[in-house]
Structures are given as structure tokens and as C-alpha cells.
Amino acid sequence: MPTVEPETAPARVEDDGPHADDSGYRQPEVDVDAMRRLLDGRYGDVRDLVRDNLTEHAQILVDQEQMTTADFRERVKDVVVMMAETGQTGMGFPEEYGGGGDIGASIAAFETLALGDLSVLVKVGVQFGLFGGAILQLGTRHHHDAHLADLVSGRTMGCFAMTESGHGSNVQALGTVATYDAEAQEFVITTPDDTSRKDYIGNAAAHAELAVVFAQLEVGGERHGVHAFVVPVREDGRVLDGVRIEDCGPKMGLNGVDNGRIWFDGVRVPRTALLNQFAEVTPEGRYLSPIDNPNKRFFTMLGTLVQGRVCVGGAGINASKVALTIATRYAVRRRQFEATDPDQEQVLLDYGMHQRRLLPLIARTYALHFAQEVVAGQLHDVFSGPGPIEQGSDEHARRMLESRAAGTKALGTWHATRTIQECREACGGAGYLSENRFAALKADTDVFTTFEGDNHVLLQLVAKGLLTDYAGEFEEMDQLGMARFVAGLAVETVVERTAVHKLVQSVRDLLPGGDTWDQEAGLLDPNYQLAMLRFREEHMIGGVARRLKRGIDQGANAGAVFSRVQDHVIAAARAHTERLVLEAFVSKTAALPDGDLKVALNLLCDLHALTTIEADRAWFMEHGRLSSARSKAISREINALCRKARPLAVDLVDAFGVPEEMLRSPELLGWPIGSDH
Amino acid sequence: MPTVEPETAPARVEDDGPHADDSGYRQPEVDVDAMRRLLDGRYGDVRDLVRDNLTEHAQILVDQEQMTTADFRERVKDVVVMMAETGQTGMGFPEEYGGGGDIGASIAAFETLALGDLSVLVKVGVQFGLFGGAILQLGTRHHHDAHLADLVSGRTMGCFAMTESGHGSNVQALGTVATYDAEAQEFVITTPDDTSRKDYIGNAAAHAELAVVFAQLEVGGERHGVHAFVVPVREDGRVLDGVRIEDCGPKMGLNGVDNGRIWFDGVRVPRTALLNQFAEVTPEGRYLSPIDNPNKRFFTMLGTLVQGRVCVGGAGINASKVALTIATRYAVRRRQFEATDPDQEQVLLDYGMHQRRLLPLIARTYALHFAQEVVAGQLHDVFSGPGPIEQGSDEHARRMLESRAAGTKALGTWHATRTIQECREACGGAGYLSENRFAALKADTDVFTTFEGDNHVLLQLVAKGLLTDYAGEFEEMDQLGMARFVAGLAVETVVERTAVHKLVQSVRDLLPGGDTWDQEAGLLDPNYQLAMLRFREEHMIGGVARRLKRGIDQGANAGAVFSRVQDHVIAAARAHTERLVLEAFVSKTAALPDGDLKVALNLLCDLHALTTIEADRAWFMEHGRLSSARSKAISREINALCRKARPLAVDLVDAFGVPEEMLRSPELLGWPIGSDH
After folding, report:
1. Contact check, Cβ <8 Å, A343/B557
2. Distance from CA of B410 to the nearest CA of A (A)
3. Does position A233 have pLDDT exceeding 50, yes or no?
4. Of A315, B135, B347, B372, which sits with the fewest C-beta atoms within 10 Å of its C-beta?
């Protein structure tokens, strides 16, 4: 619920903030094409290719409603294969196997797919991201030659069999076993019990011929941790002996993806089935790995899969754009009540409440878009660097990337859930009809907050990185280990090691008022806005460290200590990620040449920054960084910003570049109900 | 997102509030049966009858996933008719027509239906609540004799054709016309244009034989406003001449209900088709009504339909119970990580974050349950009173009931949306599978926030009542009229006329500290909690009045003034309803005899009250009613309350009495994944 417009002192006549009537303000004209080019960034051509493909296959949005599940699954597969032929799904693979050789392009393509049917998106993610990505990143030449060309073209479909029923987020503890039989030079893959069945595996129930199976490697009676194997599961549509596959059955959404459960009963695969980028078993049964530490090895393997998280975050952000485009266009057509007086006829978006519902979400979508651009760019740079990944010199940078990907994924997918819901409600009963898109958007995106890492678990990962400064050993620590590690440090050490510590200091130097910067700086000064978010982040991290330390020092059970601090831990991670998001938006905007585009983006950036502060204004007040008067001033300023953004709203959503065919909603958008525009 | 656990001062060792270690606290034992009887209230037998019926027809939860839409619609209809035979759907009708003669019982029965498939619920609501309710309340003996027995038994299906495409919440402006032809002694029903087609009409696309049609009555060239008519639309499954019906097509959920659009092209019905409780047309064409004022007549007619809102609010609250039961039971089975140390093995609900996610929602569900009991009881009393409704002496009380019903419906249905979403996420990927209930719960309840009155529109109605003290003319005022009306009063008048004004004073007298009651009173003193909510309500209403008055006094356009104040208006209405909800919970609890049940409910009531204050703690700080230290203390107290409620959680949800068959979720609940309990 939007914040209450605060009651005003008698002397103040309107609720306008000091900036609402700035005589210097001139409403910008938004050049929709230019804004769209800015959003599309360096991969505009790739995004346009995907938009064209989506438009060509727009009928699938109708098929999703009308087909049986079995037919729809086939239809989705066919569309995926047809899209593969255009090259859009293979951008991240080496050119010699039919790929595009550009990881950044592959992320841009995937994100853009989220404007269309999301079963197609997820099927693409499973086939080319998870399955294909595992072969590419965990395998070596042998596996590349054997599989990449076929999977890039969609001739061979595969699945990614990692998650198990009983082990959820704790991949390292999974139960499937791969035992090396030196005699036969084969691995024997077995599911020891029902908690170790592979679960929710996309592409498994109907289409996958191959599976990348994660299992505990056992050689000569010794366990070496989780490794990945290429295992045939189906041939000519028939499930192979020793493999049992069950359909997960109907789901809330994404029913074009065939999720299944898989059990292995002594399935034999050759020694070369081990994806051996990071470890090898010799024919005679010796285990070799360039990474001695088993934990480090495990997390290095897992780290190569970070692209999936970046992609899902981007998909959430882009799905939000579809909902906002529909709801905003509807809001400038529809009237809440009949006109009783022509002067007072107002469309929905003229109402303060409706502005408050939609405009901050548009601003936040822009913010997350630019934050996503940063993380996708970093991923591209890290994974496009020279030489095998494990030799990359900057492990610290890679851990920061993983952390940033985790945080952005969490915020981007929660944003999708919230935005799509708000937009549905803002379209009233019409929003409930399937042809108006919200039904599929809601149902299909709902699981984004869970898959590729549950958001709460991901934020704990982010916090662990912050608290340990991405120490070499941080990946191996569980939450309790992290609590003990932090307890071993001075709190000042924890705080000073975080990047934010120096940032807070440097931004304070930019602001007027010295120690009272938080009272003197202008609300629309981005340095003020950033300083607030940095202060919060630093303060929260310090607070978590202090509480963990105190608890452990007093000899309390580490589990109980962590349990009590957990929401604080998650809040610190969220505060960190919010700061990264705002920084991305501020620096994108600052880099623009002067002009209307910059004016419009500054407006959105202010709206995003202030609504972010407003949402947690209680915390800022509790921690002495916001007076109640200034808190109220922020709410007023947001209302003023909403009124300024109102005339730009349609252009701002049109710049998202959602193809008209993806919007559907003929009655919401197509003919004038209760409006003569 | 739950509030951040605030960082603590160095002197404080744990984050426990002052009450967490109260030596006097003894953990209560919850007698599940006794708690359930308390929740079920005076209609326990009725609720059990419905539970039995739901269990008997539990297969429909599976059918919903597996059947085609056409088959599922038939199946839902059949179940509705079978349930009708047990009497559960006809509780509100006079006994002489096969009904139960008890309005309160009919609400209890309807609410309980929300534990099962919600298409059945909505179909029941359409047939017996909307269609049947209109015949009963707006019709007279003639209509009762002609239709009630058949509709109560389900032999005749009907629909309620009020909403039009272009007129949404503004029923008074609808476009369908009923012209009286004195010659033929018939009304001629016509849809003049596409914005006046009837839309989203449940039961219309397949099953209704009769429709109660709302149309502008025109007699002898004169318009008399909206009236209702019984119009045959189908015979032996064939749509009648002059009637055109279109299917609304697939929806996000509730696909067992056949929603349709209806157009009328000069359809003739006899003079007696007018539901003439409040108005009559004589054979020769004279219009007569006991209510002279056309606006008052319209709102009197509409007011008889308040039961629908009460029912939908209750349905939202009960659907939440299903989600919470599943998520809570899952949370005491599932572990987030493998046990590395047996002493520290924790199930999900042992984590502070998970407690914060679920336990306040359980507390709020209890609160809303008791608030719903109050509004349902008031409805029963008002509608069971002697004599025709329009002669009821206490119109003021009826307006307050309508307002309360509107507010409770808004809060109850938003609660459902939020709770079901949180519970789905708290069950991870498994929550996404249809067999685990959340898919249907989410999709089916989504429209609850919109139908039977959009929640934002309803809260504006609540605010209008508060601001005008339910003045006789208040129903006729649109928002702009309301703004002008309030501007004509002194602000003090507005505030003093509200019921809350005296309540704040009286509760302050109960609290220690005089003017500093907000700092001195104990956090767990219900008088303190109520005083906070009352203060907020009064302050917000005063603020709205002041801003409206100032704007209008300065000659600003009333539309612009209202637009700027709108979110404040809605917040005031919400604050009012929150106060009613807490009052209901406090007085229910206070009336219990001492014992464990009371201890447990006090715990929940405190948890609900403090989380309600915490959620808006920024407002309280901004308005001088909460110091930052006390605000932090409230958050700590909530954490302590969560830890106290943790051991009771399963019993508290089991007391909701959701039949096991309604939970499904075999894998979430049925066998021990990652747990040996």
C-alpha cells in the first residue's frame, strides 16, 4: 500500500513539495525510439531479432489457453526449435558449433524472450542455458564435439538433473551416487532413496534424450563430492532401461514445459560421460583434479552456472514490462466514473492513487533494467576472458559477480510478482480474463522467485559474501560456519572490509552540511539518495556482525543465534542490492548528454530513489537519519514526481519495446470502453 | 518484507524484548477442538455439514486440474445441485420455499465452502446469493412463489446481470434500458451499445435460464433510474430470441464458472417481471414507489445486496486458512539444510525469518475471522429484523453495516492474495505443483479483490461514510460531491462526528501516563494497541477533511483536489477498518474465561496488534506517537511473540478445521522429505 499522504500543517496550502512548482521545470518530450535504443543497449539488433521471432509465433499465446497440455508441450518445443534456427538461442555457444560466440548477446536474447510466452522462455533456458551451459562449461572438447552442435540446433533435447526432492537448495548434500567401475570403465548411476529422486526437472517428462546428472562421485570406495555426468535417458521417445521418469503433473503455470522426476537404477555410462573440466577419473580409477579442495571444486563448478540466475532476473524484469505496458495504456483510456462535468472528466491515471500504484513501478523497472545491464555486462566480461575459467586470476571478482547475480535475481523476480499483481488489479475484472495476458504472466512468473535459487537463500548468500568480504573460504561455509567466522573478527573489521564503508565516507564529502548531510542535502541530489542507501547498508552489516559475534561469544548455539539474526541478515543483503541498483541507475543517467531524455530519466531515477527510501523510512527514522518532517517531505516530493511523470507514462512504457502482438488485451487497449479517445 | 531486526545497543545482550523471558509465562496447551469450536461459533453444525459435503466431493479438486473447461463447468454445476439438496446453500431463504430461514447460517455455510474448490463457491454465490438474493430481496410474493423453490433446489439456474463493460463500478450509470409498453403491458429490454453489454456475468455462458437484469426504467418517456427485472434468457439450453450471449473465455481461475456477456435486443417481458419491492409500474403506466428520492431508492435496492460483500470477505479469509495450514505443516517437517550437527537440526519454522513470514499471517487470519463474525452477525440482525427492509427504523445502522462490510471485504480479500502468495513461496518449488493447492488458490482468489466491488472503490465508500457521518445524502454523493460536502463543514465537525473521536478519549483515560500514554503504556496492553489505531484513524480523517476543505475553499477543481487526497482517503478508510478488526479480536479474547485458550489467543492478538502498528510505524513516528526506541522495542517484542507462538503453530492452524481432503499436498505433508519426523 502506498504511503499515506501526511496530514499537513495549517500554514501549508497544498501538498506539493518544494519542487512541484519549480518555475525552471519544463516537461520533457520523450523520444520513444531514442529511449528504447538506450534501454536496448549494445544488443539492440539481437533484441529486435527476438522481438521479430516472438511476433511471428504470437499465436502461441492463444495456444497456451486452448491446447491440451500434451499438445502445448509439443507446440512449445516446436517453437523453440524454430527459434533456434534463427540463431537467437545459441548466441552464447562457440561459433564452431553453430553458436554466436557472445555471452552478452545470449543474455539479451533470453531476457527479451520474456516478453512472450514464458514456457518458451523456460524451455529455452533449460535446453540452452542449463543443459547446454553445463556441457559447455563443465565439459571439455570431447563433450563439445559430441553434443554442442546438436543441442544448439535443437536436434538433441536435454535436461539438467540437479535438484532432488529432499535436498532443495542444498545441492552439495544430494543423494544420487555415481560409482566408478574400473573393470568396465563405467560409472554406475543410482538413486538410493526417494528423497534423492531428481525433481522438477524441465524437459524430463517428455523431450529430453540426454540428462546432465549431478551425483556424488565414488571411486574405489572414496567419495569426491558432486560431479556432473552426461546420461542418456530416452531414445526415440522411449525411456531407457534403468531410468524411471514420472511427470510432475499440472503446475500453476509453465505447463508448456515438461517437468519430471527421474530415478536411476544402476544406469551405466562410459567413463567419458563425466564432464571433466574440473576433475577426471583415469581408466584405472584414479581421481584427479586441478582443484584440491573439494569444496572449492564444487563451488567452482557451480559458479559456472551463474548465467542462469542472471537470465532469470532479467526475465522477471522484462515480464514486468509487459504488465506495465498494458496497465498504463489502460489507465489512460479508462474512466473510473461517468463524467458529470466535462471539465472534471479524468482517466484512471489522473487519480493520485493510480499514479502511486503504477509510476513508481515503472521507475523501478527502469532501475532494475539498468542494474541488470551491469550484471549481464560483468558476466560477459568474466566469462569471455582468456583461458579456462578456473585459471581466472580474479576469484574475488567472480564471487562478487555471483553475489550480484544472486541479489539482482531476487529483486528482479520479486519485482515481477509484485508488479504483475498490481497491474492486474489496476485493470479490474478485465485483468482476470486470460486474453488480457495477466493470467499467464502471473502463473508463469510465480516460480521465478524460487527456481535458480530461492530468493531468501540467495540473499543469505549475498550477506555471507558481504560479511566475509568474499573470503576464499566463504563459499564453503554454511550459515552456521559463517556465524562462527564473523564472530572471530572484530566488528570494525567486518565493516571496514566492505566496499560500502569507503563509499559512505566519500559521498558524505560531496554533500553539504558535514555531519548533518542527511538534513541539509537536497532530496533530489543523487549523492544524498546514494548516501542514504549506503548508510543503511553499512549500518545493517555492522549490526548483523555485532549480533552474531555477541551471540557466539556468549556461547549460544550457533543455529539459534543465526535464526534470530536471519531477517536482519536478509535485510542487509537486500539493502546492499538496492544500493547497487540505484548506483546503476544514477550512473547510467549521469552519463547521458543533456537533453530531454536525461531530464526524463532523472525524473524516474529520483522517483525510484525516493520511493526506495520511503519504503524503509521507518528504519531511517529509527536510526537517526531522517526526521519526521523530512520523511513527510519525501512523500510529498514523490507525489509531485508522480504528477510530473504522469504525462510521460505512455511513452515510458512504449520505450520498453514490447511488440503489440505480445500485449493482446484487445478490449483493455483496443476499443474505447467508457472513453471517447 | 518483514521488518529488520534492529541493531542493538551494546549493553543489550539479546534481542529479546522485556516480555520474552517473563518468568510468569507458561506455554499454553492449545485444545484444538475447543479452539475450533470457538472459531466456528454459533454455526458449528452448519460448518460441519459443509465440511462433510466438501469431503464427499473432494474429487472435484482433481477434476479442476484434469477436465476440459466444458466438462468442469458441468461438474461444478452438478456438485452445486447436490450440495443444494443437503440444504447448505439455501440457509438464507424462507423455510416455506425449502430454505433454512437463517441468514447468519447462510453466511457461515458460504464461508466454509471457501475451504474447497472455489468455482463451486462462486457458482453458489451467483445462484443463491446474487440471483436468489435479488429475487428474495427485490421481489415480492409473486416472484417468491414463482421462483424461490426452484432456485433453492437448483432446478432453475439464474444469473445476476448488473455489471456492464463500460460502467464498471458505476452501476447507477449503466446503459441497458427497460421501456414500458403500456399497450402490451410489457417491458422492452434493450442494450443500446457495446459499452452497455452485461459483462463477466457468472452462470450466463452455459447454465442460466433466468437473469435478473438491471436496467434504466423508462415509463412514458420518463426515466426512473435503475431497476431489476426477471428475464428468461435460455430454455432447454437454447438461448432465447433477442438475447445474445457470448462466453467470456478462459480466465485466470474460476474456470468452473461460466462467465458470459449478454446483449438484449428488444426482449419483451411482462409487467410483473419488475422486481417490485421498492417500485411498481401500474398496468396503465404509472410509476409508484414508496421512496420518493430516486437516489435513495437506488441505494436502498443496492443495499439489500450487501450480503454478497460479506460473503466474499469471509471467503477470502477462509481460503487463507487452507494456504496457512499447508505452509505451516510443511514448515515443521522440512529442513532448509542438512544437519551437520544433530543439536542444531532445525526445521523451517525454527528460523526467525520463517516465523516472521507465517506467524503474523496466522494471527491476522484469526483477527479477520473474528471481525468477519461481527459483520456477519450484524448483517443477520439487520436482515432478520421484523418487517420489510425499507421500513427499518435505523438507516444509519444499515449504512454503517454497508461500510463495515465494504471495509472487511477489502481487507479480507487482500489478505487472501498476500497470504496465499507468501505460503506458496514458503513451500518452495513444491508449492508450484497443482496438486499442492496453491495454484488453484491463487488463481481462483485473485479476482476477489475486484468483484463484489473493487477494493479501492470500496474503501472510498468507507471513507465517504466516515467523513459525512453516514449522512442521509451520503449514498448519493460521488467523490466530488463528497469533497464539496466536507468542504462545507468545519473540520472539527467532521472529526467530532466520527465515532472514533470519543473512543480515543475514553481509551486514553484507561492508560497510564496521561498525555504521554503512548510512551508509558505497556506494549501488550490492548488499550494501548487500540489507542494507537484509534489515534491514527482520527488523525487521518481529520487530515483528509482539512485537505479537502482547503482545496475547495481555494476554488480548486474538485476533481483535482480529490485526486491529490485520494491515497489519504483510502488510508483513512483502511485505518478505520483495521481498528474495527482489532476491536473485534480484543473483545472476543477479553470475553473468554481464563485458561490456556485465552492465553493463546492473547498471544495471537498481541502479535496481530503489534504487527499492524509495526507495518505503519513510520506513520506513527512521523506523527509523534512513537519514538524510535519504542518502535524498535515493538519489533523486538514481535520477534519474541513469534518465538512463543512457534510451538503452538500447528495446533493453531489445525483449529481452522480444514478437512484433510482439502489440503491434498501429499508430498508436502504426507511423507518425510528431509525429515525423519
Report:
1. yes
2. 12
3. yes
4. B347
